[in-house]
Amino acid sequence: MIVQTFLESRRHIFSSEEERNLNFQQSMRTSFQLNQRNERGFSKVEHASHHHQIPREGEREVTLRGKPGKAVKYGAEYARNNGIPVILFPKAKDESNGLSPSDVVDTLRKFEVDFILLAGYLKLIPAELIRAYQKSILNIHPSLLPAFGGMGYYGMKVHKAVIASGARFSGPTIHFVDEHYDTGRILAQRLVPVLANDTAEELATRVLNEEHQLYVEVVEAVCEDRVVWRKDGVPLIQIKENPNEFR
User: Fold this and answer.
1) CA–CA separation, 194 vs 176, rounded Å?
2) How much is the CA Rg of the chain, to the nearest whole Å?
């Protein structure tokens, strides 16, 4: 049977086509949500998939795509080529097959999706989806939140603001998603030094490299039940080699 709760899940993702033949009754089913504004967003998914950096058992069940664009088109095409269903959200005015928020919840439940991973998706997640998937939606942001986060902080704008501020460090943050921009509980961060003569593009490249690694490590921890919640509501990741230590 499909495990229903976050901490009881022993299910993994990013399987190859060959691995899809495994026993998915014990695999985590995961949805990816893409947006056209971040052309690198889907590369996080592809990078992990191609390099087998996630535990082998698992299943990507459905990809939600945003408005048409290069990254979204590529991500949707990649999903379809690997037998992963693609659905359209949010509903566009000129497309009749898009889903409403309540439709998305119903569809994800139909596919028995357990977690949602956002990759370059910049819109607020509807309240219906937040309520249905509490502590089960992850997003990655290219700065050390809570600094340089919130509405309007995305892509190169973040890196330009970091450099202009004189901050000595930046880096990606992975956080759980709530009803607001970039205010959900922080799960993991990775430090990236800001060099004296950095351009926004140079900093962005180094941050992106860390994003690829960090997202994979965090999802692995989620799949291995190594995310625990402190009494004050702060999520921590157990160290794989020593469950009594956290990061």
Assistant:
1) 26
2) 17
Structure confidence at residue 32 (pLDDT): 59
Indicate the CATH number for domain 18-237.
3.40.50.170
Q: CA 186, 104, 64: angle at the middle one, nearest 5?
A: 70
CA nearest to 188, candidates 127, 236, 123: 236
Residue 52: what residue type? H
pTM over 0.85: no
Question: Which among 141, 159, 175, 212 is annotated as catalytic?
Answer: 141
Question: Which residues are CB-contacts of 1 (< 8 A; sequence separation ≥ 6)?
Answer: 25
Block residue for tokens 């359209």? 88
Task: Work out the widest C-alpha separation in the chain, in whole angstroms.
Answer: 55
141 tagged catalytic: yes
Kindly report, residue by residue over 97-131, the tens digit of the pLDDT: 667 888 889 988 888 888 888 877 888 899 999 99
For residue 72, give both structure tokens: 């979204």
- 3-class state of residue 30 by DSSP: strand
Residue type, 109: R
Domain ranges of the chain: 18-237
Phi/psi at 33 (nearest 5 deg)?
A: -120, 125
Q: Which helix (H) or strand (E) holds 109?
A: helix 101-110
Q: How far is Cα 208 from Cα 216, in angstroms, rounded to an integer?
A: 13
The closest alpha carbon to 111, from 30, 201, 37, belongs to: 30
Note the pLDDT of residue 123. Answer: 84
Strand 173-176 and strand 137-141: pairing? Answer: antiparallel
